[in-house]
């Protein structure tokens, strides 16, 4: 431990912040107090205060401090589908209380996750930061001064960010009103045009999907087969009439995870190229919600890669859908999230293996090729 006995005793104060992002319906239920585990915000507040007092037991070589004040503020931000957590720690001591404030916001967010994970396991804790500190020889720190910009609510994850990189693939904002699009190309061995070269591309977008264009991305002279999968919106699901499907996503998370999936498959199946795109927004019956394509020298590898691609998209992408029909809107895959047209919650114990089901419709796989006798 660093000796602090030579430091003067001064009034120390630190403010830390963090954000936990969640599905919009989770934020709405939290705001109206309709959650299965009771007083979520009050419990998270107590957990944060208790954690601040136990900081020396959690952080190695951290000095014990006699805190004089700890407070936790939790603001439910329904438009951003998030809870913004702020912790303030104060003490009259020889060393600072930054770690106490940081530990407090972390544990408060973890408690929120624990109490809400039954209805939303895709929540993300982010933007953990020191906002302000005062006292001691280092003086006064304010994040807005250090960064040259105001300290406010963190930007929403689905806001366009120029030059963002996710999953190792270069990303650029997509064009078009209401569109969130990223495109990445990850080379995997060989030069362009070589049979051993595998390029991967992925998109999360609001515009209608073009199956021919996505298939063309993976086609090349060395491909003897191209397999495609189309997930379409159908007019029914588990006895309910469906007139419209509404998809929502954590855009940056979905893009990063899709980039990882697309990079995995060429490494696992040599010679394949894969591409995929997923819609967000409102889709009518018959619209394509997701399209996958895979090419390979032979049909077996193409079919295998295409099947693995859609399976991993279904299992891993943070994308949700809400059905619309005569019975009112319904979040698919939520255990306790049926909403009437008036927006009131009703418990129906409804669940799926995954939190969302892509390919809410019909899958098509087309293989064509001339790669040899086994085709």
UniProtKB/TrEMBL annotation:
CDD domains associated with the record: MoaC_PE, MoaE
EC number, UniProt record: 2.8.1.12, 4.6.1.17
Gene3D superfamilies: Molybdopterin biosynthesis MoaE subunit, Molybdopterin cofactor biosynthesis C (MoaC) domain
Compositional bias of kind Gly residues: 366-375
Superkingdom of origin: Bacteria
GO biological process: Mo-molybdopterin cofactor biosynthetic process
Recorded metabolic or biological pathway in which this protein acts: Cofactor biosynthesis; molybdopterin biosynthesis
Pfam families assigned: MoaC, MoaE
Entry-linked SUPFAM superfamilies: Molybdenum cofactor biosynthesis protein C, MoaC, Molybdopterin synthase subunit MoaE
Catalytic activity of the protein: 2 [molybdopterin-synthase sulfur-carrier protein]-C-terminal-Gly-aminoethanethioate + cyclic pyranopterin phosphate + H2O = molybdopterin + 2 [molybdopterin-synthase sulfur-carrier protein]-C-terminal Gly-Gly + 2 H(+); (8S)-3',8-cyclo-7,8-dihydroguanosine 5'-triphosphate = cyclic pyranopterin phosphate + diphosphate
Keyword Heme: no
Bias type Basic and acidic residues, positions: 136-159, 341-360
Subunit field text: Heterotetramer of 2 MoaD subunits and 2 MoaE subunits. Also stable as homodimer. The enzyme changes between these two forms during catalysis.
Protein's job: Catalyzes the conversion of (8S)-3',8-cyclo-7,8-dihydroguanosine 5'-triphosphate to cyclic pyranopterin monophosphate (cPMP).
Protein name as catalogued: Molybdopterin synthase catalytic subunit
């Amino acid at each position: 431990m660093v000796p602090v006995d030579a430091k003067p005793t001064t009034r120390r104060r630190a403010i830390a912040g963090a954000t936990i992002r969640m599905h919009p319906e989770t934020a709405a239920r939290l705001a109206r107090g309709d959650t299965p585990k009771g007083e979520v915000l009050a419990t998270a507040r107590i957990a944060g205060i208790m954690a601040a007092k136990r900081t020396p037991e959690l952080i190695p070589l951290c000095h014990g401090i006699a805190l004089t004040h700890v407070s936790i503020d939790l603001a439910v931000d329904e438009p951003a589908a998030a809870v913004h957590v702020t912790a303030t720690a104060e003490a009259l001591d020889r060393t600072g209380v930054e770690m106490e404030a940081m530990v407090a916001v972390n544990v408060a967010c973890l408690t929120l996750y624990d109490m809400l994970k039954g209805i939303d396991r895709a929540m993300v804790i982010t933007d953990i930061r020191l906002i302000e500190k005062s006292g001691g020889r280092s003086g006064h720190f304010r994040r807005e001064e250090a960064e040259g910009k105001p300290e406010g609510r963190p930007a929403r994850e689905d806001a366009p960010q120029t030059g963002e990189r996710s999953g190792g693939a270069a990303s650029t904002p997509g064009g078009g009103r209401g569109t969130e699009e990223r495109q990445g190309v990850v080379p995997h061995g060989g030069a362009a045009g070589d049979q051993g070269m595998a390029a991967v591309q992925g998109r999360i977008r609001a515009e209608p999907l073009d199956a021919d264009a996505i298939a063309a991305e993976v086609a090349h002279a060395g491909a003897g087969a191209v397999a495609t999968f189309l997930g379409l919106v159908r007019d029914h699901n588990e006895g309910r009439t469906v007139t419209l499907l509404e998809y929502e996503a954590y855009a940056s998370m979905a893009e990063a995870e899709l980039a990882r999936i697309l990079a995995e498959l060429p490494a696992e199946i040599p010679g394949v190229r894969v591409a995929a795109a997923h819609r967000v927004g409102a889709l009518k019956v018959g619209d394509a919600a997701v399209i996958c394509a895979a090419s390979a020298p032979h049909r077996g590898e193409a079919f295998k890669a295409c099947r693995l691609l859609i399976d991993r998209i279904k299992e891993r992408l943070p994308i949700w859908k809400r059905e619309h029909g005569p019975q009112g809107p319904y979040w698919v895959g939520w255990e306790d999230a049926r909403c009437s047209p008036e927006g009131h919650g009703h418990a129906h114990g409804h669940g799926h293996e995954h939190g969302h089901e892509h390919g809410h419709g019909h899958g098509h796989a087309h293989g064509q090729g001339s790669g040899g006798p086994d085709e």
